[in-house]
Write a structure and sequence with these properties.
Layout: H1 2-12, H2 18-31, E1 37-41, H3 45-55, E2 64-68, H4 69-80, H5 86-94, H6 110-123, H7 127-137, H8 144-152, H9 154-176, E3 204-205, H10 206-214, H11 227-237, H12 246-255, E4 258-259, E5 266-270, E6 272-276, E7 279-280, H13 282-290, E8 294-297, H14 298-302, E9 306-309, E10 313-317, H15 320-329, E11 336-339, H16 346-354, E12 361-365, H17 370-382, E13 387-389, H18 394-399, H19 410-414, H20 420-432, H21 442-451
Parallel strand pairs: 3-4, 10-11, 10-12, 12-13
Antiparallel strand pairs: 1-2, 5-8, 5-11, 6-7, 6-9
Helix pairs in contact: 1-5, 6-7, 6-9, 7-9, 8-9, 9-10, 9-11, 15-21
């Protein structure tokens, strides 16, 4: 009970929680369980500050803030303890009981019963236990396939769920529970919220981890027997959306420190010194002498014992067309330029990891749209001490003559960027309503590379 009172005490200290708490109470009473979401239209400044501080995310300057009941409960438990369940917090806050759906788990079918009777007691108080609550809260939508698999083959599907729980706890014990954000990442008003640290370099093969957990090196891969459920668990852990393409799967698995060896992944680069043991890589030397860009696959990079950039700076360009143009214009200079057209894929991350011994600065430039800034933010989270926004400020945005439409879904409007510079730029973009292609900045980018910024 002390945990619940501590949570309620913090909430009552801020005037910005009033409307949110009323919405949470109404939604919980309507469904009888932790389901649905509260939408705060035209939030006041104190509401933006309260929600941003509580979740450690940027909810400022938004026309609509959407907070899921399950998200609020999960964050409360991370900040204050497992006892801070939403129904208990609401009852303590309003000093009256909330309606609960009877049998809220057993009405979810056989899979819900299995979770309640078999898995929940075993994993209570762990990250896997919190994930099981998430499964029950969203079973009819996100976890319908797992429930159907259990109905068809209870033993096989049950083993799969147990394996995912073990994977979550092994991952959590290694990087989650004691992790902390780098100093230049804002965590809001509360500092006790556990967050993921950047994965170790280099990342380990997913097949190796999968073998230890399931005995099958392919089970946890995106196309494996456990792949869908494991990816959904990782998406929940990292507050990411479920991947929709191979690049997004690579990025999600990389956040957990895994390289997906089964996925095609390559990166274009110009100017990298690499070696196999004491023997320099002949292919890299060939292209370095010609000062030409070339492609490296995940297999190529994995065979390097050492990789170094020219100097202590790596210029990363998201747009492949802009990358090609910059390489052509700066051909007479020994600079390391990398193309991140595939996003934060396995090959890109492994190459940067291999070059990380000297902690080179990563000057990152991209299209000024939500997709580009999302990739930039992902790189920032993985390499916070090396990341430098490059031609990504308001002055560059205004001088580049915005040319596109800033079409955003509600989900994207609510998504906060962790890097302050990127968040500031995105705020200016939303007010202007236009995007900017990186190709319009080729001349400036090329000059920066030549001058070594």
């Amino acid at each position: 009970m002390q945990v619940v009172l501590e949570c309620v005490g913090h909430i009552k200290e801020s005037a910005g929680f009033g409307r949110l708490m009323e919405g949470l109470f109404e939604a919980y009473a309507r469904h009888g369980r932790c389901f649905g979401a509260v939408r705060l239209a035209d939030p006041a400044p104190e509401e933006e500050a309260a929600v941003s501080g509580y979740f450690g995310r940027d909810y400022y300057d938004q026309a609509l803030i959407r907070i899921g009941l399950a998200d609020f409960e999960r964050q409360s438990q991370k900040l204050f303890g497992r006892e801070a369940k939403l129904d208990a917090v609401l009852e303590a806050y309003f000093n009256k009981r909330v309606a609960r759906r009877q049998g809220s788990r057993t009405d979810l079918g056989e899979f819900g019963t299995f979770i309640e009777t078999e898995l929940a007691p075993r994993y209570s108080g762990t990250e896997a236990g919190a994930w099981l609550d998430e499964v029950c809260a969203h079973m009819r939508r996100s976890y319908r396939a797992a429930a159907q698999a259990y109905a068809e083959n209870p033993r096989e599907a049950g083993d799969m769920a147990r394996n995912i729980c073990e994977a979550i706890n092994k991952l959590a014990a290694k990087k989650y529970a004691a992790a902390s954000r780098p100093k230049n990442v804002s965590t809001g008003a509360l500092s006790r919220s556990p967050v993921f640290s950047s994965p170790p370099a280099p990342s380990i093969p997913l097949s190796e981890f999968s073998s230890k957990i399931t005995g099958d090196p392919h089970a946890l891969s995106p196309a494996g027997t456990h792949g869908d459920l494991f990816a959904r668990a990782l998406a929940w852990l990292y507050k990411s959306r479920y991947p929709s393409n191979p690049e997004e799967f690579c990025a999600l698995y990389l956040k957990a420190g895994f390289v997906c060896l089964g996925q095609a992944s390559l990166v274009h680069v110009r100017g990298v010194k690499a070696s196999h043991g004491q023997t320099p890589c002949e292919s890299c030397d060939f292209y370095n002498k010609r000062r030409e860009a070339f492609a490296l696959t995940l297999e190529n990079i994995g065979g390097f014992d050492r990789a170094e950039p020219f100097g202590n700076k790596v210029y990363v360009i998201k747009n492949l067309e802009a990358f090609s143009a910059v390489c052509e214009r700066t051909r007479g200079f020994d600079r390391t330029v990398v193309c991140a057209s595939g996003g934060l894929n396995a090959a890109f991350a492994l190459l940067i990891d291999k070059m990380g011994a000297g902690s080179p600065k990563l000057y990152f430039s991209c299209d000024m749209d939500f997709a580009g800034l999302s990739v930039a933010d992902a790189v920032y989270l993985r390499y916070p001490r090396q990341f430098v926004p490059w031609r990504l400020d308001k002055a560059d945005y205004e001088s580049a003559a915005p040319d596109g439409e800033l079409a955003l879904t509600d989900r994207q409007k609510e998504t906060g960027l962790h890097c302050e510079e990127l968040a500031s730029l995105f705020s200016a973009m939303r007010k202007n309503g236009k995007t900017v292609s990186q190709s319009s900045l080729v001349e400036q980018l090329s000059r920066d590379v030549c001058e070594g910024i």
